């Protein structure tokens, strides 16, 4: 049986780890070729080395804050795989829920500049570098959004503002690039990845995976309707396939699919109305 993305060519920023890598592997399984972009070339090369068909993976070292590097990555994608059908804008950093009241003015300024440069400018620049090729293929952009694109406390104010900004960017580009290019988002909830913090807060080496590792058998489940839902990024890849596929989601643009254990339908008196079932 053929996959949903047979013959597609996708470029994934932050494709060496976490949800980016999981999407790369899922796209490969669906028949696509992928260009994975990130800052650590050795890490990206392991995606190719561990793929069932390494010839369908190309690794590009680039920083998403650098427009020329993104243009070069798009050109390499096209040189390798003949075209570009899908851009997955995904590379990001978290702020470890650092509250405004725990930051000095100088720290706010530095953290804002760093987090917005990666999370928001990085998506802008990737879209700018890719849209011409996507117009040619009637392709699409899929942005990794977050529960923090809609709700509070999934980050501190800097991260939450950055992910709200990505939601606005997704919607505006969906308007601007229609009818040729669709633009959608996947609003992920908590995932056990290697998500790092801002270097400006000396959190560049801190990984969200350490927070997951601290959770023991007695840790209460998060207050979500689907409180036993997975945190494995592999289980978050379905909407990325759906939204990339012209056949499966051709009329969808400007939409975010939330994949977060039901954050939007939490109850007041209990997390899930069916706990007794
Ligand atoms: N982990 C979660 O709980 C969670 C929840 C919701 C949304 N997200 C979002 O998912 C996306 C991916 O994060 P993840 O959780 O997979 O973490 P991750 O750290 O495993 O993946 C992020 C990738 O982006 C890369 N990256 C960071 N800065 C970069 C830069 N300047 N240039 C190029 N690459 C850069 C990192 O090296 C890494 O490979 C982010 O946008 C994050 O905000 C994560």
Structure description:
By secondary structure, the chain is α/β, with parallel strands linked by helices. It has a single domain (9-259), classed as NAD(P)-binding Rossmann-like Domain (Rossmann fold). 39% of the residues lie in helices and 14% in strands. It has helices at residues 18-29, 41-49, 67-81, 105-137, 157-177, 208-214, 238-244, 246-249; strands at residues 9-13, 33-38, 57-61, 86-89, 140-146, 182-188, 256-259. It has a 7-stranded parallel β-sheet, with helices on both faces. Helix 1 (18-29) links the parallel strand 1 and strand 2 (33-38). Helix 3 runs parallel beside helix 4 (105-137). The longest helix has 33 residues, at 105-137. Bound molecules: nicotinamide-adenine-dinucleotide. Residues 14, 16-20, 38-39, 63-65, 90-93, 118, 144, 146, 188, 190-191, 193-196, 208 line the site of nicotinamide-adenine-dinucleotide.
What is the element string, with H for helices and E for strands?
EHEHEHEHEHEHHHE
Please state the average pLDDT score. 96
The general outline is: globular
- Catalogue the unreliable spans: none
Radius of gyration: 18 Å
Helix content class: 25-40%
CATH class, named Alpha Beta
The appropriate CATH architecture is 3-Layer(aba) Sandwich
The largest pleated sheet is described as: 7 strands, parallel
Q: Report the strand count.
A: 7
């Amino acid at each position: 049986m053929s996959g949903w993305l047979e013959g597609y060519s996708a470029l994934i920023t932050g494709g060496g780890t976490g949800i980016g890598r999981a999407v790369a592997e899922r796209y490969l399984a669906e028949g696509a070729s992928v260009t994975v972009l990130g800052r650590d070339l050795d890490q990206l090369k392991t995606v190719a080395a561990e793929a069932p068909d390494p010839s369908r993976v190309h690794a590009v070292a680039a920083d998403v804050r650098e427009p020329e590097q993104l243009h070069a990555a798009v050109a390499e994608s096209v040189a390798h795989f003949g075209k570009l059908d899908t851009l997955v804008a995904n590379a990001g950093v978290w702020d470890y829920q650092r509250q405004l009241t725990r930051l000095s003015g100088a720290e706010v300024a530095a953290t804002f500049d760093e987090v917005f440069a990666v999370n928001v400018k990085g998506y802008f620049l990737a879209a700018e570098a890719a849209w011409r090729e996507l117009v040619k293929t009637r392709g699409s952009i899929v942005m990794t959004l977050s529960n923090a694109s809609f709700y509070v406390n999934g980050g501190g104010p800097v991260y939450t503002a950055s992910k709200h900004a990505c939601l606005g960017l997704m919607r505006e580009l969906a308007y601007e690039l229609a009818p040729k290019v669709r633009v959608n988002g996947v609003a992920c909830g908590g995932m056990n990845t290697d998500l790092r913090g801002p270097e400006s807060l000396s959190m560049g080496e801190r990984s969200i995976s350490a927070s997951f590792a601290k959770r023991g058998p007695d840790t209460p489940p998060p207050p979500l309707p689907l409180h036993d839902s997975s945190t494995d990024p592999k289980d978050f890849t379905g909407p990325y396939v759906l939204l990339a596929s012209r056949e499966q989601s051709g009329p969808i643009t400007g939409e975010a699919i939330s994949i977060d254990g039901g954050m939007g339908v939490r109850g007041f008196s209990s997390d899930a109305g069916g706990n007794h079932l």
